[in-house]
Structures are given as C-alpha cells and as structure tokens.
Amino acid sequence: MNMPVSKKLCLKKQSVRSFSEDVLYAVRNNLPFVLFAVILLAGMVFGSVYARNTEENVLKKLDFLFACDFQARTSQPFSTALLASFASAFIFVFACFLCGLSMWGVFFIPVILFFRGFGLGLASGYLYSAYKLKGVLFNLFVILPGAYICCIAIIFACVESSGFSRCLMSGKSYKMRTYLFHFGLILLIAFLSSVIDFLLSMCLSGLFVF
C-alpha cells in the first residue's frame, strides 16, 4: 500500500529537522573545536588568495622551496624523512602546549592556528598557480591527507591548551598530569600524520614530475 504524498513530505521535513537539530547539538557540544577549525580554514583561504595574487619573485622563492622539499621527499632515508615530517607538526603542537601554560596564552593560540592554515593555504595556492591540474592532484593525494590529520591534532592541541590557559586565568584547578597525558595523545596523532605523509610521498611522488 502506497503512502500518501502528504505523509511522505511530512516525514521528509521531520528527518531534515532532526538532522539540523543533531548538527546544532554537535556544534554546541564541540564549540571550541568548531571555532578553531573555522580559524584554520580562514588561514587557508587567506594563504591561497595570497599565493594567487603574490608577486613573481615570491613565487620563484616558493618554487625553490618546493623543489627542495620535493627532492627531499623522494631521496631522504626513512628515518630522516619521517622526522622531518614530524618536526613541522611537533613545532605547532609544542607552541600550543607552551601557550596553555600561561594565562595569556589563550590570546595567542588562534594566531598559531591561523599561521598553520595560512601556510597550508599558501602551499595549495602555489601548487595550483604554478602547476595547475598536476599541482592540484599532487596536493590532493600526497600533501593533504597527512596535513588533514596533522591539522586535527593541532586543533585538539588548541582546544586543550586554551582550556588550561582559561583555568589558570580564572584560578580553577586543572591537573597537570591530565594536561600532559592529553598532549601525549595529540603527539601520537601528529606522528600518525607524519607516517601517512611519508608513505604517500614514497608511493606517489614518483608519479609526478616537477
């Protein structure tokens, strides 16, 4: 027996309303993470726009840096390449960790995240400007998967450090052991992103010629 059209529309509206309510609920319960993700995306947008509109001499410097990085990705030993990839993530996570130890660090944490997004957007915009479709494919399949997980780790670091910094500012108690444990888990995520970045570089970089 077929369901009336009006009842189908009613069920559809209810499902859409339920989905939107679930989304709003998830956003409210993870508001710091969402806000930091927006800051990161804003940095990426500014970085990509800057790369598209920058001067030619700046593009030449970016091209030199990319050539060095691409050669290093394909020629360095396993341990060296993995540590080099992990070092960039570690710097941002460690900067968030230090900011969390200060009551004023909460004001600098968004700057760290924006800077990370700007760098990623700058690299993406440069690859598109310089190499068009080939640059987009390289960015999509080689750089972004590891960078995506790395950014998640950095956002978690920002959430954790901002919470600790606000506790210091308000005089609330927060166990240092918990803070260190959470950052240990964040570093594991960052290390996972480095492993993915290294494996994709080894497996797929040979498909691209720059």
Please provide the ordered H/E string of secondary-structure elements: HHHHHH
Residue stretches low in confidence (pLDDT < 50, at least 5 long) are none
Radius of gyration: 21 Å
CA-to-CA gap between the ends?
Answer: 62 Å
Topology:
Layout: H1 5-29, H2 31-53, H3 56-75, H4 78-100, H5 109-170, H6 176-204
Helix pairs in contact: 2-5, 4-5, 4-6, 5-6
Compact overview of the structure:
With 210 residues, this protein is mostly helical.
Describe the model.
This protein has 210 residues and is mainly α. The protein has one domain (29-207). The chain is 87% helix and 0% strand. The chain contains 6 helices and no strands. The protein has helices at residues 5-29, 31-53, 56-75, 78-100, 109-170, 176-204. Helix 2 packs antiparallel against helix 5. The protein is globular and about 55 Å long. The N and C termini lie far apart (62 Å).
Question: What tags apply to this protein structure?
Answer:
210 residues, mainly alpha, 87% helix, globular
